[in-house]
Design a protein that fits this description.
By secondary structure, the chain is an alpha+beta fold. The chain has three domains: 17-211, no CATH class; 216-293; 298-418, 2-Layer Sandwich (Heat Shock Protein 90), CATH 3.30.565.10. It has helices at 17-22, 24-57, 63-89, 105-113, 116-150, 152-162, 173-209, 213-260, 265-293, 296-301, 303-313, 330-351, 386-395; strands at residues 317-323, 355-362, 366-373, 400-404, 411-418. A five-stranded mixed sheet has the order 1-2-3-5-4, covered by helices on one side. The radius of gyration is 30 Å and the shape is flat.
Length: 421
């Protein structure tokens, strides 16, 4: 599921035979793979006619709007495919196009034709024909074979009752039951084939429909800069509306107390006590603000202690496992901490989970943070949302965020954070 700020991976789900068969993702992908051949053939016929005609007529004025319409048509087809990826394969691929210009035919032509995502869309739609035909043919053979084997006991019983026989059935109960067992095996193999083809299809779709890696990183860093600027404005606003106003009130109270020392000592003491309370409130606000920027426990004791503190405040049991031989860079620790904090907050609000786990480990690429819960799933990365903000944070150090959250759960949020960038 890729967006401009989210690196997508194709969720593989469970690996055991029963898990693969009962996983809803398998049966969402199966009908899609059955019809991809038809989609590919349809797009090949349409584009095989529209593209040459529009390019031929481009030498005269009527070909310009026709070319624009053709490009918009295949862009629209690619957008539909991205939505199908989310529904059938659980992969979110946001539209990676450049911003649309406000006006001007020439500007719109450059917008359409100079964007590399436009031509990657065309390549994907043309690739659908050979890829889709293979997927559809394999799926059709596997599922027809499995269905024919599974219904052998039923067919044998029906034909025995009617007193007729068919070449499609086996002529004794033992053979029919054995065929049904082979049918069960065929279903399991078919489920594995579906998951394998879905993985391959999803990876190709992510590469072609998601825009170039350079553009994704550039956009992600731009979004990260915007997120940092928004955070700076939030801190300024919190300081102005909170601690600054309290400290100003403290200064006023102290000034009034100073003027009352000689004439009204009792009121002066009350004003000093009021200033003292205001000072403590301002310190508390500054402490909370600093914790939101970078918690002190993270700097002093590292990720293990900081994440254990987050888990202790969660409304459900959260298991924490931190396996780090040495402390990663401060930026990595901070992003890992806020990734877990935001994910646990979302879990408490929306998931309905009863248990969760946080795992942090080091691999050859850097630090990997996994946050898992057994909630209802269905989480999405929406522009301006919390997960999108986490992806923006990770992108500032060339990290990626991976979300696997099928309907019905469970949900896994993984942050892969390099220690060198």
């Amino acid at each position: 599921m890729r967006s401009v700020a989210l690196k997508d991976r194709v969720p593989l789900g469970p690996y055991g035979p029963i898990g693969v068969v009962v996983d809803p993702m398998t049966w969402r992908a199966a009908p899609y793979l059955l019809v991809t051949g038809a989609f590919g053939l349809g797009w090949f016929v349409v584009l095989g006619f529209a593209v040459p005609v529009s390019l031929t007529l481009a030498v005269v004025w009527v070909g310009v709007p026709l070319t624009m319409a053709t490009v918009l048509m295949w862009r629209g087809g690619a957008m539909v495919e991205r939505r199908l990826m989310a529904a059938a394969l659980g992969i979110r691929i946001d539209d990676p196009y450049l911003p649309r210009p406000d006006r001007g035919l020439g500007a719109h032509l450059r917008w359409l034709l100079a964007d590399s995502a436009t031509w990657q869309d065309l390549g994907y739609l043309l690739m659908l024909l050979p890829l889709g035909l293979v997927e559809s043919a394999v799926s059709l053979v596997v599922w027809l074979t499995a269905a024919l084997l599974l219904i052998q006991p039923l067919l044998y019983g029906l034909y025995a009752f009617m007193g007729v026989y068919s070449d499609l059935t086996i002529d004794d109960w033992r053979g029919a039951c054995v065929a049904a067992l082979f049918g069960v095996v065929a279903v399991v193999l078919g489920a594995y084939l579906v998951r394998g083809m879905a993985w391959l299809h999803g990876m190709l779709a992510t590469v072609l429909l998601g825009g170039s890696q350079e553009e994704r990183l550039r956009a992600s860093r731009a979004r990260g800069i915007d997120a940092a600027e928004a955070e700076r404005r939030r801190i300024e606003r919190d300081l102005h509306d909170g601690a600054q106003q309290r400290l100003l009130s403290v200064a006023v109270d102290l000034g009034r107390a100073q003027s009352k020392f000689d004439t009204d000592p009792e009121e002066a003491r009350d004003l000093i006590a009021q200033a003292h309370a205001g000072t403590k409130a301002a310190i508390a606000e500054l402490r909370n603000l600093a914790r939101g920027i970078h918690p002190a426990i993270l700097s002093d004791r590292g990720l293990d202690a900081a994440l254990s503190g987050l888990a202790a405040r969660a409304p459900i049991r959260v298991d924490v496992s931190v396996e780090l031989d040495d402390r990663p860079p401060a930026a990595v620790e901070s992003i890992a901490y806020f990734t877990v904090a935001e994910t646990l907050t979302n879990m408490a609000k929306h998931s309905g989970a009863t248990e969760a786990s946080v795992t942090v480990l080091r691999d050859h690429r850097g630090v990997v943070v996994d946050v898992w819960d057994n909630g209802i799933g269905g989480a999405l990365v929406c522009p301006g949302g919390g997960l999108s903000g986490l992806a923006d944070r990770a992108a500032t150090i060339d990290g990626v965020l991976v979300l696997h959250s099928p309907i019905g759960g469970p949900t896994l949020v993984r942050a892969e954070l390099p220690c060198e960038w």
